[in-house]
């Protein structure tokens, strides 16, 4: 990324006829370079945090995109969608059971075990209350999901719904507010 630093370095090198090697530690130009570097670092950290926050939703969409591709972009029944949601919710169960079985008796749970337990519990709660996902009952939405290339900017084009464990379907907005 580092666009601010590159621009600042270019401006200073033009001013100094192409040489930035001899800058005094407290000069205005060195302070400008330092400020530009700090800004670029801060922006990169913000972008990294945003990508980390967005990753679970991207994984969810790619999971359902693979399901749509397996079904050859056909409309799906609510029962098939519920089965796939259940599969998504319980995708970490094997790993959780393995981590739990490798723990010696009387020892506290490992951090990985705690994280998996919390992740599964959160997904189960979301499934009970209303699982957030792209609408797979609409033909145009299924086609849009099939063409999705993995970018965050394409996701607002899809229509989103919340499906509860009882089969209650209600529309939702993107990005999720919860």
What does this molecule look like?
With 178 residues, this protein is mostly helical. The chain has a domain at 57-172: de novo design (two linked rop proteins). 60% of the residues lie in helices and 7% in strands. The chain has 6 helices and 3 strands, in the order H-H-H-H-H-E-H-E-E. It has helices at 3-15, 28-70, 78-89, 93-102, 111-129, 139-147; strands at residues 131-134, 160-163, 169-172. A 3-stranded antiparallel β-sheet has the order 1-2-3. Strand 2 and strand 3 form a beta hairpin. Helix 1 (3-15) runs antiparallel to helix 2 and helix 4 (93-102) runs antiparallel to helix 5. The longest helix has 43 residues, at 28-70. The chain is flat and about 70 Å long. The model has no long low-confidence stretch (mean pLDDT 86).
In short:
The chain has 178 residues and is mainly alpha-helical.
Cα-to-Cα separation, first versus last residue: 31 Å
How large is the radius of gyration? 24 Å
Strand content is: 5-15%
Determine and state the CATH class of the domain at 57-172: Mainly Alpha
- Counting copies of identical and different chains, the oligomeric state is single chain
Percent range of helical residues: 55-70%
Q: Count of DSSP helices?
A: 6
Shape, per Cα inertia axes: flat
Poorly predicted runs are none
Structural class: mainly alpha
Task: List the secondary-structure elements in sequence, H or E.
Answer: HHHHHEHEE
| Lateral strand order in the biggest sheet | 1-2-3
Strand segment tally: 3
Overall pLDDT confidence: 86
Main pleated-sheet profile: 3 strands, antiparallel
Region (Disordered): 1-37
Family: Belongs to the TMA16 family.
Protein name: Translation machinery-associated protein 16
């Amino acid at each position: 990324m580092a666009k601010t630093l590159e621009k600042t370095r270019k401006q200073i090198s033009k001013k100094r006829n192409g040489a930035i090697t001899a800058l005094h530690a407290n000069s205005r130009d060195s302070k400008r370079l330092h400020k530009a570097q700090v800004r670029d670092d801060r922006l990169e950290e913000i972008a990294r945090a945003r990508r980390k926050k967005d990753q679970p939703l991207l994984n969810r969409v790619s999971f359902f995109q693979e399901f749509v591709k397996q079904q050859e972009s056909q409309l799906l029944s609510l029962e098939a969608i519920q089965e796939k949601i259940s599969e998504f919710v319980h995708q970490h169960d094997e790993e959780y059971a393995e981590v739990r079985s490798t723990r010696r008796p009387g020892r506290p749970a490992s951090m990985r075990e705690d994280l998996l337990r919390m992740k599964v519990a959160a997904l189960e709660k979301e499934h009970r209350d209303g699982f957030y996902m792209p609408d797979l009952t609409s033909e145009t939405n299924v086609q849009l999901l099939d063409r999705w290339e993995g970018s965050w900017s394409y996701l607002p084009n899809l229509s989103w719904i919340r499906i509860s464990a009882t089969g209650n379907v209600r529309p939702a907005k993107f990005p999720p507010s919860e």
